[in-house]
Every structure is written in C-alpha cells, then in structure tokens.
Amino acid sequence: MTFDVSVVGLYILDILGRPVAAIPPGGQVQFIDEIRLTVAGTAGGTVIDCAKLGLRTRAVGAVGDDEKADFVLSTLSRFDVDISAMQRLAGVPTSATILNVRPNGDRPALHCRGASDAFTVTEADYPTVLDAAFVHVGGMPLLAKLDGPPTSALLKAAKAAGRTTSFDLLSAMPQTVDVLRPSLPYVDYFVPSIEDATAMSGLKKAEDSARFFRDLGARTCILTMGGEGCLVATPDAMFRLPAFEIDVKDTTGCGDAFSAGLIAGLHHGWDIEKSARFASAAGALVATGLGSDAGIVSFAGTEHLMNTARTRPLSA
After folding, report:
1. DSSP of 242-287, one letter per residue?
2. Domains in the chain: boundaries
3. How far apart are CA 59 and CA 73, in angstroms?
4. 45-74 burial by CB neighbour count: b if 16+ within 10 A, else e?
5. How far apart are alpha carbons 167 and 287 in whole angstroms?
6. Is the CB of residue 100 less than 8 Å from the CB of residue 17?
7. H/E element holding 316?
8. What single string gives the DSSP state of each residue in 19-74?
9. pLDDT digit string (tens) for the chain, length 316 residues
10. Under 8 Å CB-to-CB from 260, ≥6 apart: which residues?
11. Which DSSP symbol is given to 183?
C-alpha cells in the first residue's frame, strides 16, 4: 500500500482569534493577542497531525474554487500530505469557520458549510481512497452527500479490503445516530467526544454510552472527555485513562489530534491502552497552542510528553 492512512471527510479553513472576551459593540475595535489560519475539520485536523506524527498520509475531501482553497491545499502540501484525492469544486466556497476563543477556552463558532456539503466518495474512487492501511472518516453530520449510505458503503469496502477503520463526528445531534447506525458495524475504532456520544445515545454515563455504540456494532469505542481523560471500551474490557496536566490555551482540534495519535500508536503495533495514552498526549499538545495544528511537532516529542508529563487524577 502507498499510504499509512487515508483521511476522508470534513476539511475546513479555521480563522481563530484569542482572547475574545466579547464582540465589541457597533463598529468599535477590540485588540487581541493572536489570530491564526489553520486547516481544520474532523478530517483536516487529523490528516495534518498524522503527517506530523510521521505517517504517510493522503487527504480525501473537497474545497471550493476560492482563495481559502489555495490556503488549505498549500498548507496540506507543506506538511507532505498527498492532495491528489482532494476535490476542487467550482461554484462553491471552501468550508470555513470563524472561532472567537474566549479567555476560558470556550470557542463559539460561525461556520460556512460550503464544499463539504457537495463532497462524496463513489465506488470509482475506492482504489485511491483505500490505498492505505488505515482509513479514517470524520465529519458526520456535516457532510450532506457523504453521510449515510455512501459512508456505510465506503467503510464496508474498507473492511472487505482488510483495512483498519476509524470514525469521528462533529456537532452530532440526537438524530445523527440514525444516520450513523448502518456504518458502525464496519468501524474498528469509534472515537466521538463525550458530548457527541451522549447527544446521540441519550445516556448520561460515559460507560453506558460506550456500551450503546458497541452494541450497535463498533468494535472499540473510545470517548474523549477533555480534562476527564478518555474512556476505552474494547470487546474484552472497559477502562478510563487520565488526561495530562497541561496549560490549556485552546481546545480546538484536540479530538482530531486524539484520532491521529490513536492511528499512529496502532500503526506502530502498540496495544490499545498505550495507543490511547499516546492519543491523549497528542490531544494535550494541541491544547497548548491556538488552532488544530498547534503543539504537535513529532512522534518522538509526543511520546516524550506521554512518558514524562503528570496526569490529572481520575474522577470517582
């Protein structure tokens, strides 16, 4: 296979500013410390972090025909991500988000859906998309044409081809579970946030939500829970891992980094516990900077944090 991982789904240009305590009234100006442009989204953030962690990566998504597309594609190329499977669609804007990061880390968003709603993968694309050991899909329910049967068909084909599959979402709603349900039997690692998981399952306890998704067919379910660490539910065990003690600047992209770290750990042949710890370290590093591409420098640097940083106590 040509690539270690093929990352399919939501590619967004993020425009971030911090700290934003309030939007100034009228036409007034508020001065802030930092503004950045980054490639983000449940696929875009993950694919760049995979590349930073040393994986041969392929991006599979869509951008528009605007200046934002130029930035997204050039940034992916700068990180040595293969962009030959990125679709450039005429007549639509590139998906983009304005994030006003508050002093406490909250990040209210203004989002233009754009090209992500027009992106899909057909059977003719499978030889290209599946030319990787790992296939990660991210972005439901913000991928209007890919969500549902096209996603299920892609994941089914990936499993038939012997690929390892992983799946993440963004801004899930209670009804998202009905769109997700047919895909889960073809997902090896389902990695939602605790917020998305509880919204879809309707269950308050993390353990109950993890069982819910495993009962729907996901082989392993890992819930990311911010400062509470993560919960791992495999076919044989369920356990929690603590979060690392870090100075949090912005949590944008932490879940995307977790997915990338998990894939990297599994790629190196580690067991699920060590891979999830490494994934937590990747997410922690991203939280130390502004934007979804912050913090992570290399595999070795992430492994060093995993082995040396203090962890927060697990809650009872």
Report:
1. PPB----S--TTHHHHHHHHHHHHHHTT--HHHHHHHHHHHHHHHH
2. 3-20+34-308
3. 10
4. bbbbbbbbbebbbbbbbbbbebebbebbbe
5. 21
6. yes
7. none
8. --SSPPSTT-----SEEEEEEEHHHHHHHHHHHHTT--EEEE-EE-SSHHHHHHHH
9. 899 999 999 999 999 998 998 889 999 999 999 999 999 999 999 999 999 999 999 999 999 999 999 999 999 999 999 999 999 999 999 999 999 988 887 888 899 999 999 999 999 999 999 999 999 999 999 999 999 999 999 999 999 999 999 999 988 999 999 999 999 999 999 999 999 999 999 999 999 999 999 999 999 999 999 889 999 999 999 999 999 998 888 778 789 999 999 999 999 999 999 999 999 999 999 988 877 777 899 999 999 999 998 998 887 5
10. 45, 46, 47, 49, 50, 52, 53, 279, 282, 296
11. G
Report the length, in residues, of the chain: 316
Residue 164 Cα distances to 4, 17, 183, angstroms: 10, 36, 14
Cα 260 off chain centre by: 7
**CATH 3.90.25.10 is held by the domain 3-20+34-308:** no
The reported pTM is 0.95
Q: How far is Cα 90 from Cα 279, in angstroms, rounded to an integer?
A: 36
CA dihedral 83, 268, 214, 164 (to 10 degrees): 50
Classify the phi-psi angles of 86: left when phi > 0, otherwise alpha if psi is within -120 to 50, otherwise beta.
Answer: beta
253: left (phi over 0), alpha (psi -120 to 50) or beta: left
DSSP element (H, E) containing 169: strand 164-169
